[in-house]
Specification:
Layout lengths: L4 H24 L7 E6 L5 E9 L2 E5 L12 E6 L2 E6 L6 E8 L2 E7 L6 E8 L1 H4 L23 E4 L1 H4 L5 H13 L2 H4 L3 E3 L5 E4 L5 E3 L6 H10 L3 E6 L21 H11 L3 E5 L11 H18 L4 E5 L17 E3 L8 H9 L13 E3 L12 H13 L4 E3 L8 H7 L2 H7 L8 E6 L2 E8 L3 E8 L5 E6 L15 E5 L4 E3 L5 E6 L4 E8 L6
Parallel strand pairs: 9-10, 9-18, 10-13, 13-14, 14-15, 15-16, 16-17
Antiparallel strand pairs: 1-2, 1-8, 2-3, 3-4, 4-5, 5-6, 6-7, 7-8, 11-12, 19-20, 20-21, 21-26, 22-25, 23-24, 23-26
This protein binds alpha-D-galactopyranose.
The site of alpha-D-galactopyranose has 10 residues, from loops.
Length: 523
C-alpha cells in the first residue's frame, strides 16, 4: 500500500518526540529495556545464558519455556540510572553488578560466594543463540568397538586440581612432569585437557581454543613429543557444565561430526564427553542419553583416528548396561568425586555391585583420582587407590604432578597395585564379608592368584580377617599346596599359616594382599 504525503507527515509528527524520548533515555541509561536474551561472557572463561524480563526498574530472569532454571537459579534485582544489580537464588549465590554501555551491552562484575569477582559483559543475543532448539537424535544402533583401552586407561586430567583455571603451559608442564616423575613408566599415558579450553566457534563453525589455549594442535604435538597421548573435552550439549570462570564453555551440540573431525585433525587421542547442558535439550531417559552418546561415538569412529571415548553422564540410566553400545570405552558411574573421605568412600564402595559390567575396552569409571590433592590422609589415599584398582577403574591422576611428595608417588606408582588394575583378564571384585564398617573384598587375578583388600571404613582401628580357604583356587584347595601372600603396601611377604589371616587395619585404611600358589607365578 502506498502512503499519502499526509500519512507520511503524520508519521513523522508522531515519531519525532518518540525518537527524542528514546535518545534521552539512552543517554540516561535508565529507560533501557533489558527484556530479552543475554550472554554473560568472560574473556577466556565461560558463558552463562539468561532470559531477562524488565518491568519498570525491576529486572528478573525467567526460565525459558521448556527449559530448566539456569545455573544461577532465578535472578532478581533492579536497573536504576543505568546500573544493573541482579542476585541469584542458585547454589553459587551469584551477584551481577553492571553498568549499561548501550542497550545491547552491559559491563558486569559477577561475584559468586567464596570466589574471586569475575569481570565480563552481558551481551544481547537471539533466543536461538542462547537456547538452541532440539535437533533429532539418531536411531539407536550398536557402534562397533574401536579396539582401544584393552586395560583401564591411565593418565592425568586437569579438572580435580585446576578446574578451568589453567592454560596451555600448565598442560605442557604436566606432560613434562608425567615423564620426569616416573608416572609414565608406571603406565600413566593420557594427558587430558578437561573443561576450560574453548572460546566458541569461528565463522565456519569450527570449535576454537581461547586465549589460554591458543593452539590446540601445537599442544597435542608437544604432548606427543614426550611419548604421551593427549585427551580433549566437550559436551553433547551446547555448553559444558561450568567452571570457576563465568559459566560453561562451548559444547559440540549440532557440530558433533565437525568437532570429531577437528579433534582428529589436531591429533587428539581421547575425548571426555560430559553431559552438562545436554540436559537442557534432551530428556532424562536412557534412550536420549544413549542417542546423544551414540551420535558422537559414530562421529569419532568415522574420523578413522583411534580416540578413546570417555562418557561422562554420571551414571544416568544405568550407563554400565549400554555405554559400550555407543562406542564408549569408559563411562562415569557416579556424580563428581571430591577430595574428601566421605565422598571417595561413598562413591568407591557403591561400585562393587556393578563390578560385573567391566570388560576389556569398556570400563566403569568411578571418577578421577584425588590422591595427592591434600584433602585425605595417606591411609585414605591408599584406600582410594586400592579400591580403584580392585574395581578395574581408569586411573586418571588429578593432582599437580610437578609437586608430588614421596608418599603421593608411592601411592600413585605402586607397581603391584597398578598390576591389579591392569590385569589383562579383568574379573569383577566381590565382597567376601562385611561386618560393621569392616569389609573384605576379593578379586581373582590372572595367573591363578587373588587380590584381597581388608578395608576399615570406621573411625577406629579394627581387626579384620578372612579364611584362606575362602579363596577358591582353580587348582584345588589351598591345603594341597602352599600359598604365598604379599602385603602390597608394606612390600613385604605375609606368613601364611593357620586357617585365617587377621590384621589390625587403621581407621579409613586398607591392607591389600596378593595371594597365589607357591611355585606358581611369584612376585
Ligand atoms: C562435570 C564432570 C567433571 C568435570 C566438570 C567440568 O562436573 O563430572 O568431571 O569435567 O564437569 O565442569
Amino acid at each position: 500500500m502506498r502512503t499519502s504525503p499526509f500519512h507520511r507527515r503524520r508519521w513523522r509528527a508522531a515519531a519525532a518526540p518518540l525518537l527524542l524520548l528514546s535518545l534521552g533515555a539512552l543517554a540516561a541509561g535508565a529507560q533501557t529495556d533489558l527484556t530479552g536474551y543475554w550472554a554473560f561472557r568472560v574473556k577466556d572463561g565461560g558463558v552463562n545464558y539468561m532470559q531477562l524480563q524488565q518491568t519498570g526498574e525491576t529486572v528478573v530472569s525467567v526460565a525459558p519455556a521448556g527449559r530448566p532454571v539456569g545455573r544461577d537459579g532465578l535472578l532478581s534485582g533492579t536497573l536504576h540510572e543505568g546500573k544493573l544489580h541482579l542476585a541469584g537464588a542458585g547454589p553459587r549465590q551469584a551477584v551481577y553488578d553492571g553498568v549499561v554501555e548501550n542497550p545491547n551491552r552491559i559491563a558486569v562484575t559477577m561475584q559468586a560466594t567464596g570466589r574471586d569477582p569475575i569481570k565480563g559483559t552481558l551481551e544481547r543475543v537471539t533466543r536461538e543463540g542462547a537456547f538452541p532448539a532440539r535437533l533429532p537424535l539418531p536411531e539407536l544402533r550398536d557402534v562397533p568397538d574401536n579396539g582401544l583401552a584393552r586395560t583401564p586407561p591411565m593418565g592425568w586430567n586437569s579438572w580435580n586440581k585446576f578446574a578451568d583455571v589453567f592454560d596451555d603451559a600448565t598442560v605442557r608442564r604436566m606432560a613434562d612432569a608425567m615423564v620426569a616423575s616416573g608416572m609414565s613408566n608406571a603406565g600413566y599415558t593420557y594427558i587430558v585437557v578437561d573443561e576450560g579450553w574453548t572460546s566458541g566457534r569461528d565463522a565456519n563453525g569450527n570449535i576454537a581454543g581461547n586465549g589460554k589455549f591458543p593452539d590446540m594442535r601445537a599442544l597435542a604435538a608437544y604432548v606427543h613429543s614426550k611419548g604421551l597421548k593427549i585427551g580433549i573435552y566437550s559436551s553433547p550439549g551446547p555448553q559444558s557444565c561450568s567452571g570457576k570462570m563465568g559459566g560453561g564453555y562451548q559444547g559440540s551440540y549440532g557440530h558433533e561430526e565437525q568437532d570429531a573431525r577437528t579433534f582428529a585433525d589436531w591429533g587428539y587421542d581421547y575425548l571426555k564427553y560430559d553431559w552438562c547442558s545436554a540436559g537442557e535439550i534432551y530428556g532424562r531417559s536412557r534412550e536420549e542419553h544413549q542417542g546423544a552418546y551414540q551420535k558422537m561415538g559414530e562421529a569419532l569412529l568415522k574420523t578413522g583416528r583411534p580416540m578413546v571415548y570417555s562418557l561422562c553422564q554420571y551414571g544416568v540410566g544405568d550407563v554400565w548396561k549400554w555405554g559400550a553400545r555407543t562406542g564408549g570405552n569408559l563411562w562415569r558411574t557416579t556424580i563428581d568425586i571430591a577430595d574428601r573421605w566421605d565422598s571417595m568412600d561413598r562413591i568407591g564402595f557403591a561400585q562393587i555391585d556393578i563390578a560385573g559390567f567391566v570388560q576389556p575396552g569398556h570400563w566403569n569409571d568411578p571418577d578421577m583420582l584425588e590422591v595427592g590433592n591434600g584433602g585425605m590422609t595417606a591411609d585414605e589415599y591408599r584406600t582410594h587407590m586400592s579400591l580403584w584398582c580392585l574395581l578395574s577403574a581408569p586411573l586418571m591422576a588429578g593432582n599437580d604432578l610437578r609437586a608430588m611428595t614421596e608418599e603421593t608417588k608411592s601411592i600413585l606408582m605402586n607397581p603391584d597395585v597398578i598390576a591389579i588394575d591392569q590385569d589383562r583378564d579383568p574379573k569383577p571384585v566381590a565382597r567376601m564379608s562385611q561386618q560393621g564398617k569392616s569389609e573384605v573384598l576379593v578379586r581373582p587375578l590372572g595367573g591363578n592368584a587373588f587380590a584381597v583388600g581388608l578395608f576399615n571404613r570406621g573411625d577406629r582401628p579394627a581387626e579384620i580377617g578372612f579364611r584362606w580357604d575362602a579363596l577358591k583356587f582353580s587348582t584345588g584347595l589351598y591345603g594341597f599346596r602352599r600359598l604365598q601372600a604379599q602385603d602390597l603396601w608394606k612390600h613385604a611377604p605375609v606368613e601364611v599359616s593357620g586357617d585365617t589371616y587377621t590384621a589390625t587395619v587403621p581407621s579409613h585404611g586398607v591392607v591389600l594382599l596378593r595371594v597365589s600358589m607357591a611355585g606358581g607365578r611369584g612376585f
